[in-house]
Amino acid sequence: DSGVTQTPKHLITATGQRVTLRCSPRSGDLSVYWYQQSLDQGLQFLIQYYNGEERAKGNILERFSAQQFPDLHSELNLSSLELGDSALYFCASSVGSGRVNEQFFGPGTRLTVL
Amino acid sequence: AQSVAQPEDQVNVAEGNPLTVKCTYSVSGNPYLFWYVQYPNRGLQFLLKYITGDNLVKGSYGFEAEFNKSQTSFHLKKPSALVSDSALYFCAVRPLGNRDDKIIFGKGTRLHILP
């Protein structure tokens, strides 16, 4: 158990809908990262927050947004969902802002868009 | 463009034999290098990292990796494979001087240890 929790574990929704994925980092970790894992694209970095502020941005679509709250938990919002958004979404956390710090991954949220 | 390559989609090794999972990178400057493992239906787990110092890095579960600057490689190794090592392995690179701190993951190598 990495200490990172993600909810929900599974999510099934329809095209055009909006969903929110939630992540609680390990105790004491200030950075939260979001990743998308799909069979064709592999593991894609989406975005990082550090102590409430956006730190780095990866291949995140404009339909997606995220935030980190004062208690350091984070939410990833996915809107106008498309079939291609079906994937496993991981959250990870690390102690610092990151270059030397390993990341601890949550168990993921499996999103299925029908 | 900065990238990480794991040239083998799958590696098969007999139990008890040594294993190697390859990783090469193309980044500007000196990177920080990581290996992660993903077991079925689980998130990634950190195995080891190279930041500086000794080129041979030891990590969890008996794994080690060798940083080779001239060949821009960071291959993962284990002297004697176990069936329980069967999983998906990811190499990751964090380039130094990368202003926006992005980490780049390879596509993953599936390791099968045959009993």
Question: Which helices and strands occur, and which strands form pairs?
Answer:
The complex is a heterodimer of chains A (114) and B (115).
Chain A: E1 5-7, E2 10-13, E3 19-24, E4 31-38, E5 42-50, E6 53-57, E7 64-68, E8 74-78, E9 87-94, E10 104-105, E11 109-113
Parallel strand pairs in A: 2-11
Antiparallel strand pairs in A: 1-3, 3-8, 4-5, 4-9, 5-6, 7-8, 9-10, 9-11
Chain B: E1 3-5, E2 10-14, E3 19-21, E4 24-26, E5 31-38, E6 44-50, E7 56-58, E8 64-68, E9 73-78, E10 87-95, E11 104-105, E12 109-114
Parallel strand pairs in B: 2-12
Antiparallel strand pairs in B: 1-4, 3-9, 5-6, 5-10, 7-8, 8-9, 10-11, 10-12
Helix count, DSSP H or I runs of 4 or more residues of chain B: 0
Gross morphology of chain B: globular
Please summarize the sheet with the most strands of chain A: 7 strands, mixed
Oligomer: heterodimer
**Outline type of chain A:** globular
**Largest protein-protein interface:** A-B, 24 and 24 residues
Number of strands of chain B: 12
First-last Cα distance of chain B: 40 Å
The stretches of 5 or more residues of chain A where confidence is low (pLDDT under 50) are: none
Rg of chain A (C-alpha, Å): 13 Å
Helix content of chain A: under 10%
H and E string of chain B:
EEEEEEEEEEEE
Instruction: List SSEs of chain A in N-to-C order.
Output: EEEEEEEEEEE
Helix fraction of chain B by DSSP (H/I, runs of at least 4): under 10%
Mean pLDDT of chain B: 91
Q: Helix segment count of chain A? A: 0
What's the story with the biggest beta sheet of chain B?
A: 6 strands, mixed
Strand content of chain A: over 45%
Q: What is the percentage of strand-forming residues of chain B?
A: over 45%
Span between N and C termini of chain A? 31 Å
